[in-house]
Amino acid sequence: MANLCIIPARGGSKRIPRKNIKDFLGKPIIAYSIEAALESGVFSKVIVSTDDPEIAEVAKKYGAEVPFMRSVQNSDDYATTADVLEEVLNNFIGLNTIFSAACCIYPTAPFTNSQILQKGFQKLIECDADSVLPMVAFEYPVWRGLRKNRNNKAEMIWKEHLNTRSQDLEPVYHDAGQWYWFDVDKFLKTSKVFTENTIGIELSSLQVQDIDNEQDWHIAELKYGYLQSLK
Q1: 129: CB partners within 8 A, 6+ apart
Q2: Second label for 114, Cα 20 to 30 Å away, from 33, 163, 172, 207?
Q3: CB distance 112 to 120 below 8 Å
Q4: Rounded to whole angstroms, how far apart are CA atoms 4 and 43?
Q5: 8 Å CB contact between 218 and 210
Q6: What does the angle CA 182 – CA 193 – CA 9 come to, to the nearest 5 degrees?
Q7: C-alpha span between 148 and 157 (Å, rounded)
Q8: Average confidence (pLDDT) per 10 residues, the chain, 231 residues
Q9: pLDDT for 175
Q10: In this structure, are strands 45-49 and 3-8 parallel, antiparallel, or unpaired?
């Protein structure tokens, strides 16, 4: 059964200009996602969906395919990941090419590696899941969260946990924002990557970093360098 890797990488990035091909410790950041996908050995095709000719050339340089450029409709600030995935899959259907499973890997996910992609695919099959994603625990218990009230004073959201020990509180996780394995047929029927039949693979906070501004970028480089030094 054929598996497809889709790396969505549009050209317009406002907070970090040219973010998807910006140098990250010696090579364009998108190269890490491409190389992890290729090294995993679980994909029939590794493609980049982009509206940008320069990104397309960088992607091909590092081994990805760019079989078609992204439509204008799915290249603005309002297009969702699901919109982009649907467009790619429907383009392949138009070429009579069908995939059983696919994985969306974001272009700014340098912590993604071949082993975690293999594990994700294994979970998708073993658990007969709709999708699989990496998740990470919030570093501070959300149950002890605060908010500002109408008088601009701090108050607890869940007052019943004022004196609860941290170790007694249920862990809460968030999406690591790196990749999503999904069953293609189920996705095309629902247009949903996250469902009630989604499996999470836990990562440590060292393996996760949102990259939304220059400070995030530098923190990601420090984390990545530290993890490499442990090998």
Answers
A1: 123, 183, 197, 198, 199
A2: 172
A3: no
A4: 6
A5: no
A6: 85
A7: 9
A8: 94 89 98 98 98 98 97 91 97 96 98 98 98 96 95 96 94 97 97 97 97 97 97 86
A9: 98
A10: parallel
Identify the pLDDT of residue 1: 64
The CA distances from residue 156 to 138, 144, 169, 189, 206, in Å, are 17, 7, 15, 41, 28
Tokens of 133: 């994603």
Distance in angstroms (rounded) separating the CA atoms of residues 225 and 110: 11
